[in-house]
Amino acid sequence: MEMDVRFQVGKQRFNFRSAGILIENGHVLLHKEISAPHWVLPGGGIEMGEPSEESIVREMKEELGYAVKAGHVPWIAENFFEYEGEAMHELGFYYILTSPVSHFQEGVFHGLEGERLIYQWLPIDRLENYELMPPFLTGALKDIPEATKHVLVQR
Fold first, then answer.
1. CATH code of the domain covering residue 54
2. Which position among 18, 20, 53, 83 has the lowest Cβ density within 10 Å, counted as fewest Cβ atoms?
């Protein structure tokens, strides 16, 4: 069994994550834990020895059954935040995803891993009406850069 690159140092936790940006019909696919107030791009932990590009393809297959191709990386984000009382340091690679078939659907739905997470296609032009993490994505998804940008998020 592979292990995600995440570890604890004192009272701080590090997480190495890949996330996918899948856009259809002016909507972006997001998910959240049912009990959480905020939405995030789908993705997950990168396994030791696994390229980040392969990680997001694997995560989308495991979580949703979607066969996707990872392309351009518009953002690499260093994200510092608190989660469940712990100081987090997350390094995230954000990939533009493409799929040969449409996955768009209205309303909330669950993935293949049970009912802990809900997924929804949210309109990009109304993301300010939702709590999106990391927060830079709310505006950034409206104007995705052609060159990769480094983003530092401290909150």
1. 3.90.79.10
2. 83
